């Protein structure tokens, strides 16, 4: 029962759609009708409100970290379960018909709390690729592909590596459309202006 409660709590925390809530509170309407239709920080940035995008990023990452930090008090298995469940909650939130974000920021926050060297390496990968290419999706994909490798190199722990691998696979699976657009040269780049 404790595992069920842990998974449910992490899932519900992950399912809070901060990007959608913040843009609605700011009077910008439904973020799902803009740009990629995603509820994450990259799409919020397309509104031209950098502060809202930054706050979305912080809150989405924060819920990933919070789930792991609380669950870790009850053991390593609980932390691993919460790490997966919080990302599933963001990607498949019950409040939005199980159609949420892509889980990149939430995964980033989760990784920093779950295995900080892995989180830092994944974050460095994302930043490097995003700065060079200005493709947020490509940066996320490469960071996710490399994260399980970082987990094995930095921790040598099977459970940690498996947890990171499961989460990375979830995030990559949400980028199928981005992969197709990248291959066709039609993916939109990060723009800091309106």
Can you offer a commentary on this structure?
By secondary structure, this protein is mainly α. It has one domain (2-95, 102-184). Helices cover 72% and strands 0% of the residues. The protein is built from ten helices and no strands. The mean pLDDT is 92.
Count every beta strand, where a strand is a DSSP E run of 2 or more residues: 0
Would you tell me the overall average pLDDT?
Answer: 92
Beta-strand content bin = under 5%
Low-confidence stretches: none
Count every helix, treating DSSP H or I runs of 4 or more residues as helices: 10
- Give the % helix: over 70%
Q: Radius of gyration from the CA trace?
A: 16 Å
Question: Main sheet, how many strands, which sense, barrel?
Answer: none
Summarize the helix and strand pattern as letters: HHHHHHHHHH
Number of domains: 1
* Secondary structural class: mainly alpha
3D shape: globular
Question: How many angstroms separate the termini?
Answer: 49 Å
In short:
The protein has 194 residues and is mainly alpha-helical.
Question: Layout of SSEs?
Answer:
Blueprint (H helix, E strand, L loop, with lengths): L1 H13 L3 H8 L15 H5 L4 H23 L3 H16 L12 H11 L1 H18 L2 H20 L2 H16 L2 H9 L10
Helix pairs in contact: 1-4, 1-5, 2-4, 4-5, 4-6, 5-6, 5-9, 6-7, 6-9, 7-8, 8-9
Question: Which descriptors would you attach to this protein?
Answer:
about 190 residues; mainly alpha; single chain; 10 helices
């Amino acid at each position: 029962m404790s595992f069920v409660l842990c998974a449910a709590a992490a899932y519900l925390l992950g399912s809070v759609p901060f990007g959608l809530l913040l843009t609605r509170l700011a009077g910008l309407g439904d973020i799902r009708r803009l740009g990629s239709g995603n509820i994450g920080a990259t799409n919020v940035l397309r509104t031209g409100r950098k502060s809202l995008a930054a706050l979305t990023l912080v809150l989405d990452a924060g819920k990933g970290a919070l789930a792991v930090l609380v669950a870790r008090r009850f053991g390593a298995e609980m932390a691993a379960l919460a790490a997966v469940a919080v990302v599933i909650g963001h990607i498949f939130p019950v409040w939005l018909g199980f159609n949420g974000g892509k889980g990149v920021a939430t995964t980033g926050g989760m990784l920093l709390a779950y295995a900080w060297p892995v989180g830092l390496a994944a974050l460095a990968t994302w930043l490097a690729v995003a700065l060079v290419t200005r493709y947020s999706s490509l940066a996320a994909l490469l960071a996710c592909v490399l994260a399980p490798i970082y987990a094995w190199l930095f921790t040598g722990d099977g459970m940690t590596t498996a947890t990171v691998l499961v989460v990375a696979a979830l995030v990559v699976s949400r980028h199928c459309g981005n992969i197709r657009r990248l291959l066709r040269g039609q993916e939109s780049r990060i723009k800091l202006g309106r």
